[in-house]
Amino acid sequence: MIITTTKAAGAITAQKAEALAVRWEASYQQRNKRSIKKWLLETGEAIYVAGDEADMFYPPHSRNGFFFHPSMAKLRAKRVMDGGRDPLVEAAGISEGMSVLDCTLGLGSDSIVLSAATGKTGQVQALEKTKEIEEVVKKGLQQWKQSDVLLNEAMERVNTVHADYSEWLREAPAASWDVVYFDPMFHEALAESSSMEPLREAASYGGLQAADVREALRVCRKRVVFKEHTRSPVWNTFPEAVRKKSHAAFAYGILEKDV
Predict the structure, then answer these.
(1) Would you say 166 and 104 are in contact if contact means Cβ atoms under 8 Å apart?
(2) Is 66 part of a structural domain of the chain?
């Protein structure tokens, strides 16, 4: 992997990029005037681009870079903070002050909404297996500023961790989080979800495993929630899950903790 900077990046960003290259055991190279698209073609390597305000990640041979943007999470989070409804918040039974473990950070949209719902006294921690995604989103959550101060605070409260949730859950204490949430990548992509295209190129696939859900039920105090395509075989694996349909193509599965 190559780590570089945007063309206009300052000295501090360059120093951080060099430090990141050391941490990831990657190659730091000065950007100069090189075109990222041409660089990708010439090297066939992934390129991580650090910027003063935001970072981008380009998987090998990718057409588009992965970058952070709150997108629809802005509207969803604002609706929640104004007392409105959100399908995920309802499926997870979230209220202010609760703690939520989001096992699949991705673009960070659900984590932002969950943070808005749990409020200043709550806690949202999001795990991400792909280190480049976690790094991009972590920086975005802290530095992307909206005109809405409460939304900024909700984003800043999300704590991201580079971790494989299968391994993380096995080591987590029992009953340590109110809710555990999974939103794994759909193997059958939603045609209209163009904003997910850069994420698909960089994301980790594998599907939701029964062993991970069992660990999540051990770790949660209240419930486990997962989001899946309505035609996913996962529904056959968890026939006891209560379905809460949110979209024509997907639904939330709810598994209550046995008390």
Answers:
(1) no
(2) no
